[in-house]
């Protein structure tokens, strides 16, 4: 009996889609092997016309992937050649996009994260956000006194070296 992949492969358009899906599945399953330690920060999005499209939420990983692009592509080529043989597509480059994700605060519930007060002025939204943070136990930064934080010193003061 034919597998679902074999049946779909007989149709030209569906066959291309099935092959593409199979290829992406192999790439995603093998990501730890060819990305190494970068795997934790990277999501494999797609592969089109020889370009592997990756996504990350931190811009620093874009430069890291570019630095190791030849090594990553070499490892991936070996994996695909072993699993697909002559059907192995040539992936010639990597493109990394930065995901635009909403900031997550430690100690806040997801339902509280920027979902309320979509209407109204910025002042109303900030006041509501500050009230909610105070209820959650956040405190004003001990250095600048301007930022509510879940630690004694806000991230801005820590980055500027203003820690007292």
Secondary structure tally: strands: 5
Secondary-structure element sequence? HHHEEHHEHEEH
Q: What is the CATH class designation of the largest domain?
A: Alpha Beta
| Morphology call | elongated
User: Total number of helical segments?
Assistant: 7
Could you say which structural class the secondary elements and strand pairing correspond to? alpha+beta
What is the architecture of the largest domain at the second tier of CATH? Answer: 2-Layer Sandwich
Calculate Rg over CA atoms.
Answer: 23 Å
- Mean pLDDT over the residues: 78
Low-confidence stretches: 102-117
CATH topology of the largest domain: the name is GMP Synthetase, Chain A, domain 3
Describe the structure.
This protein is an alpha+beta fold and 164 residues long. It has two domains: 4-98, 2-Layer Sandwich (GMP Synthetase, Chain A, domain 3); 110-160, no CATH class. It is built from seven helices and five strands, in the order αααββααβαββα. A three-stranded mixed sheet has the order 1-2-3, with helices on one face. Strand 4 and strand 5 form a beta hairpin. The longest helix has 18 residues, at 12-29. The chain is elongated, with a radius of gyration of 23 Å. The N and C termini lie far apart (72 Å).
């Amino acid at each position: 009996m034919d597998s679902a992949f074999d049946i779909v492969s007989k149709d030209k358009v569906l066959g291309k889609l099935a092959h593409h899906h199979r290829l992406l599945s192999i790439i995603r399953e093998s990501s730890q092997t060819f990305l190494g330690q970068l795997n934790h920060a990277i999501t494999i999005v797609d592969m089109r016309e020889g370009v592997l499209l990756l996504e990350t939420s931190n811009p620093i990983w874009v430069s890291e992937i570019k630095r190791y692009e030849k090594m990553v592509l070499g490892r991936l080529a070996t994996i695909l050649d072993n699993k697909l043989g002559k059907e192995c597509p040539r992936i010639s480059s990597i493109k990394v996009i930065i995901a635009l994700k909403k900031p997550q605060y430690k100690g806040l519930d997801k339902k509280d994260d920027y979902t309320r007060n979509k209407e109204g002025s910025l002042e109303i939204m900030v006041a509501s956000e500050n009230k909610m943070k105070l209820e959650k136990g956040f405190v004003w930064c001990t250095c600048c006194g301007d930022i509510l934080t879940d630690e004694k010193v806000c991230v801005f003061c820590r980055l500027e070296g203003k820690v007292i």
